[in-house]
UniProtKB/TrEMBL annotation, chains A, B:
Domain of life: Bacteria
InterPro entries recorded: FUR (IPR002481), WH-like_DNA-bd_sf (IPR036388), WH_DNA-bd_sf (IPR036390)
Signal peptide: none
UniProt source species: Alistipes hominis
Protein name: Transcriptional repressor
Stored SUPFAM superfamilies: Winged helix' DNA-binding domain
DNA sequence: GTGTCTGCAAAGAATTTGCAAAGAC
DNA sequence: GTCTTTGCAAATTCTTTGCAGACAC
């Protein structure tokens, strides 16, 4: 879907050196969109078992600090996921599943609403709405 | 601040048996509002060093499943926190600090907005807005 | 070339488990 | 009395580290 050079660009632009290991992690995240460490490790090693677990941890860490990836915590189970999308966007949580919910209008709506509510000097970096879906079970 | 019986009630209402260990964990969470496992362990053991780490894990787990506590993931550092507040409410993230932002009007605003946007059969359990504050540093 | 990144193996944390005794209701 | 919870100690699992060689630029 995305070309080789785009991956290279994404990593380079973030100020990181481009290595095959980083490219693989990035590729995997592009496919998964949201994933826990375990899943990333699993998928990366499927493609290339020579990449070490510790390297994957280090890459995920550098990606987060360089804002190549972001973090989401699933409120349902409290688990931590990496997210290929860095900018303002929202999430639908359906049990273990996380889906993006991209809605700039909603973002603007909230920004506008909050403008009058928070102290004037508050600098909002980002707004994320988490929508938790309930599979109404007989109970 | 909260009386003994209230703590008992909170635990009992959730369908769990009331034990001194559970009462202590609950008390600590009442004070902390938001806390990581480490912090809970630390504070609980300050009060009563006889309570085991594994017990604390088990209690936190049972509290979450019984919805005595909820989970928040700090999007800034990806760490997981427990939250004494279970119902609909929002959060301000300021680096490591998490603050509640309770605003039913905002909640309603989003509910209303989403009503027209999501598939009709989507059952929203909960909405949480995460507001990430940026300490604009010279950069 | 220089400085960063990776693999490896080991250390260190964090979390979970099995079981017997203690405790809640 | 019955079923659940706890303490203990050990096992597992998860994550980080130090260092030397490899690699990106």
């Amino acid at each position: 879907m995305e070309r080789k050079t785009d991956i290279t660009q994404a990593i380079k632009t973030a100020g990181l050196k481009v290595t095959p290991q980083r490219r693989t992690v990035y590729e995997v995240m592009q496919e998964l969109r949201h994933a826990s460490v375990d899943t990333v490790i699993e998928k990366v090693r499927e493609r290339n078992p020579d990449i070490t677990v510790s390297t994957i941890y280090r890459i995920l860490d550098s990606f987060c600090r360089a804002k190549v990836l972001s973090s989401v915590g699933n409120p349902a189970d409290g688990k931590h996921y990496f997210d290929i999308t860095v900018g303002n966007h929202h999430h639908l949580f359906d049990g273990q599943k996380i889906a993006d919910y991209d809605d700039p209008e909603l973002t603007r709506l909230i920004y506008r609403y909050l403008a009058g509510k928070l102290p004037g000097d508050t600098n909002i970096d980002k707004i994320q709405v988490q929508i938790i879906i309930n599979h109404l079970k007989s109970e």
